[in-house]
Amino acid sequence: xxxxxxxxxxxxxxxxxxEMCGLTLYPINKIFSDHEFNCxxxxxxxxxxxxxxxxxxxxxxxxxxxLRPCGEFDTDPKDYDHVIVAGYRRYQAYRVNNHPVIPAxxxxxxxxxxYSIDNFIENLKRKDLNLLEQARSIERLxxxxxxxxxxxxxxxxxxxxxxVRCMILDLQPVVxxxxxxxxxxxxxxxKLYSIKDIEQQIAVAVEIKKARQRGEGTSxxxxxxxxxxxxxxxxxxxxxxxxxxxxxxxxxxxTFGSHGLQNRLLGWTAGDVANFEVYHDIKEEAREAGICFExxxxxxx
Length: 301
Fold this sequence. Notes:
Blueprint: H1 12-19, E1 24-27, E2 31-32, H2 50-59, E3 65-69, E4 82-86, H3 88-96, E5 101-106, H4 112-125, H5 131-143, H6 148-155, H7 159-169, H8 173-181, H9 186-193, H10 198-213, H11 220-227, H12 242-256, H13 260-269, H14 275-288
Parallel strand pairs: 2-4, 3-5
Antiparallel strand pairs: 1-5, 3-4
Helix pairs in contact: 1-2, 2-3, 4-5, 5-7, 6-7, 7-9, 7-12, 12-13, 13-14
């Protein structure tokens, strides 16, 4: 509480930190919080941010929220000046602290799906999303017309990272609920996705949950069910499916930590990378190796 903000729960030091951060302070009551836009499944309530609000009341805001102008889209409400792009929990914490202004970064002039990406990336950086929330966010980007490869590039993740979250969307709702709790890992998700029988998929998810609650890896019942599925043989040579190619891309990404030319070539064979893109990557690799390489002429394509 200070003379300037008599009803605020924030201490003088926290308020001073906000005012000295070099960012514009925006009125809380003129900011619209659109839960439908946020990539979190559950709406953020005051009870969710009590600890965060206490921390902000003592120190101020360490990371500003992101806003955009209200009125950029026809669906925007009329009685607000700005809309939250990212920072729903921090915004709610300021409301809990009864503080009238909040530091923010203003972005404008983007398409709605670009703002969705900003929201998604911000939450990924802060590790605030569970796997199901990540999957729902990717679904929104798909519905906006973005390809899986474009989403991977925008988020700076592998195609396989996006793929496994797309698999979640095809699982049964009861299985998706277990994904949200963190009981099921990405390895479990791939196995469950391969089981097309609904009752069997649910049964395996239940067995995995029970095994993990007992502190086991995978129960014998799950192992028996999965052993019925065709297993890849180490020495088998055959034409690979797109799914197999993308799974190998994920192995390379998780092992080496970057896309790399090998991964881009696999993406090209899977149909996720265009000719020009892969030739551009070859040229970059050749340049670093001191080799002269010219990209073919695609002007007639």
